[in-house]
Amino acid sequence: MKARISKIMEMKGMNSTQFAATTGIKTATLSHIFSGRTYPSTEVITKILEKFPDISPDWLIFGKNEILRTGRTPSASDNQLRSIFENKTRDRDTVKKETEILKNPDKKEITYIEKPSKTIDKLVIFYTDNSFETFVKEK
Length: 139
What we know:
Blueprint: H1 2-12, H2 16-23, H3 27-35, H4 42-51, H5 57-62, H6 76-103, E1 122-126, E2 132-136
């Protein structure tokens, strides 16, 4: 995929710094991708496709079809990709919401999750001399 990202940069006449600034991808992330240290995350792919809507997702991710989108109807793989990206976006939104709640303690959103009650069945105490005692609940 790094070759396809390079092809986009070449096609758009950008160096890696310009490409990073345009897409919102960190230059270090691009450097890691180009060195082969990491593979592009869904977030990186999403940012590229959002900033360059003329680029075909099939081409960018799988190397299939042409580099530029055509006036075709979305394929099954496009729909799968859209679903993956939407789920990632929802996950990101949840994290942002939780972060916002932590930053603003006045705004509280509480969700109660009922769990089955638990009781203690056995208690083991370990001492620093490597001995231990076990206490079992009487039935």
